[in-house]
Amino acid sequence: MENKNKSNICKWKEETCTEERVRYPGKSILSPFCLYHLRCHQAISHVYKKRIEIAKDKAELEKARISKKNTPQEKFYQLTAWKNCSKAVLLHYADEDLMVQCCTSGRFYKVNDSDLHCGHYHKSDRHKSTAFEFKNLAPQSASDNTKKGGLPEVMAEWIERTHGVGTLEWLNIEKNKTLHLDKITLEHISKFYLNMLNEELKRRNIKNPWK
């Protein structure tokens, strides 16, 4: 079998091709490709290009999703300590029918309604020492909590009415204290609020509404 000159082999890079290059129609110079790829390489190249673009778009979307998920604020709200804390707070303020009143709008929500949040007066991403402080937390609608910035002026009035005059002054001092939310501290906080939640469930003689 006659050996082919390697310099004359088709230069198609997407797949291995051992066919010989052919001349461009009506010209004396060789094309980079064999007869097959000379005819269809543009169409196939378009397919490969689209595949690369789609893969790149998917990679960028996944990177954006992971990046968003891993922000400090997102991480905080995924903590078991926060889940136990927020549930304990909401159940504490629920009436006998497990309805909870938003501290800023006055609207009522079922205790396990996804539109009901446990809002912070001093925000958790800026003040670690009050992130889990019971008096710094209040039931709040998702809309007021996320779209209206928490309405701190209205929440402040609710805190003073609920916990007594001087509570805001006390919170303003507490927020500047140093607290490291390391693993041991978070485990302690998580157990504290889980016990509070379980005690409230036991007192009401009800099952956990979040299960």
Identify the notable features of this structure and list them briefly.
mainly alpha, 211 residues
How does the overall form come out from the CA principal axes?
Answer: elongated
Mean pLDDT: 87
Unreliable stretches covering 5 or more consecutive residues: none
Task: Compute the number of structural domains.
Answer: 2
- Helical region count? 7
User: Which band does the percent of strand residues land in?
Assistant: 5-15%
Describe the strand arrangement of the main beta sheet, using strand numbers: 1-2
Main beta sheet strand tally, sense and closure: 2 strands, antiparallel
What Rg, in angstroms, do the CA atoms define? Answer: 32 Å
Helix content: 40-55%
Describe the structure.
The protein is mainly alpha-helical and 211 residues long. The protein folds into two domains: 6-69, no CATH class; 73-204, no CATH class. It is 48% helix and 8% strand. The protein contains seven helices and four strands. A two-stranded antiparallel ribbon has the order 1-2. Helix 3 (80-92) packs parallel to helix 7. It is elongated, with a radius of gyration of 32 Å. The mean pLDDT is 87.
Give the gist of this structure.
The protein is mostly helical. It contains seven helices and four strands; from the N terminus they run αααββββαααα.
What's the structural blueprint in terms of helices and strands?
Layout: H1 35-69, H2 72-77, H3 80-92, E1 99-101, E2 108-110, E3 116-120, E4 137-141, H4 142-147, H5 152-163, H6 167-174, H7 183-204
Antiparallel strand pairs: 1-2, 3-4
